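ARCHIVE CARD
CATEGORY: sequence design from structure
SOURCE FIELD: tokenized fold
FIELD CONTENT:
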């Protein structure tokens, strides 16, 4: 890499949480577990599916909301939290994940994280009546009232297919300023996140992929390092912080 790195954008996907025991969405080439083996994506992750069968969709998200609260961050989340605490330049961690493992890895360091959830968060509920998002840890299947307006219009605060991901303007602004784009544990199957590498390349940003296996976008990256996130991410963080 020829240029000095100051501004970094990191995209994380389900692969970074796999070793914490959270299933990824798509079975990989090695035939690993996939969250949607039990549920067809179109049955649970579209607004149409929610309108058609809200009970099924609520049960699916209730189960996952409960499960993530039993999981712990792994060394990859911890390494990124350390990078966030120590990196002197600008940094934005864009996660597609709806779990809170990045936050929990950073909590002991006690700083404001430079983190953005582009596909929403399991631990928030969005009221379709008053449009307010509230912290949420329990179930939604029984249609509890919105804590703000009392309406029974709560839905999971996640981004389904056909909906606009969150904070796209902030993400593209950070990409425009970036010197380095790093993609960690994502299959490159879902847009617009899958297109960030192309956006970065076109902007002249150096691109690095850290993943278990080659992804759909691998050929776009300047560099790809294969391995489990709990190993390749801490190694890369040590390297960029000058500790290798
Ligand atoms: C490891 C590992 C280990 C395993 N260590 N690595 C046709 C063409 C192009 C686009 C479209 C199209 N038709 C429709 C679209 C758009 C659509 C889309 O992309 N569809 C595709 C199916 C083609 N996208 C949308 O609708 C999005 N909205 C949109 O486009 O709005 C318009 C717009 C236009 C322009 C600008 C902006 C917006 C919305 C997408 C919403 C995605 N939502 C979900 C569900 C969230 C809620 C929930 O959790 O239930 O988000 S889908 C699901 O996929 C989830 C994930 O965030 C997302 C990505 O998955 P991810 O993270 O990559 O996981 P996997 O499982 O796919 O991959 C895991 C990877 O980890 C693998 O590579 C493994 O090898 C690796 N791994 N173990 C390291 N230990």
């Amino acid at each position: 890499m020829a240029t000095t790195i100051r501004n970094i954008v990191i995209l994380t996907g389900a692969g970074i949480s796999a070793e914490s025991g959270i299933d990824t969405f798509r079975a990989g080439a090695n035939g690993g577990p996939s969250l949607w083996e039990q549920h067809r994506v179109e049955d649970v992750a579209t607004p149409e599916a929610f309108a058609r069968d809200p009970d099924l969709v609520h049960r699916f998200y209730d189960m996952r909301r409960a499960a993530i609260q039993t999981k712990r961050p792994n060394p990859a989340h911890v390494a990124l939290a350390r990078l966030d605490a120590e990196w002197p330049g600008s940094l934005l961690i864009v996660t597609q994940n709806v779990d809170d493992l990045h936050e929990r890895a950073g909590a002991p360091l006690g700083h404001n994280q430079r983190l953005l959830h582009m596909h929403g968060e399991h631990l928030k509920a969005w009221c379709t009546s008053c449009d307010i998002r509230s912290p949420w840890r329990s179930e939604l299947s029984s249609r509890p009232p919105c804590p703000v307006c009392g309406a029974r219009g709560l839905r999971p605060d996640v981004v389904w297919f056909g909906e606009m991901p969150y904070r796209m303007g902030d993400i593209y602004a950070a990409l425009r300023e970036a010197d380095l784009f790093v993609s960690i544990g994502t299959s490159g199957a879902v847009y617009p996140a899958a297109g960030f590498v192309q956006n970065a390349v076109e902007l002249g940003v150096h691109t690095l992929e850290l993943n278990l296996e080659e992804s759909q976008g691998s050929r776009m990256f300047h560099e790809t390092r294969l391995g489990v996130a709990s190993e390749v991410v801490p190694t890369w963080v040590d390297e960029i912080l000058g500790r290798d």
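CARD ANNOTATION: The mean pLDDT is 93. The longest strand covers residues 120-127.
SHELF: design records, drawer C
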